[in-house]
Amino acid sequence: MQQIHIIVKGRVQGVFFRARTKEQAIKLDITGWVKNLDNGDVEILAQGTEENLAKFLGWVNHGPEIARVDDVDVKKEELEKKYDAFGIKY
Question: Which of 14, 15, 75, 80 is the most exposed place for a label (fewest CB within 10 A)?
């Protein structure tokens, strides 16, 4: 199990980015959360296998059809807390 912390920049709010991210995470057995940031970015904490996280990142780099992803910052982190599901933080 690995953990990554992701910041997604671009037109990523108001385009169902969080909802679609949750759908993709569930399909790929990824746990963690996604939330909007005040500056217009989206933040994601994702936990899963290396293979599934790679597939998840591939999706995040494009996002849903109406989104525009300009930049994705990814940092590997130590697993501090294990999540049992993937949720949207408000």
Answer: 80
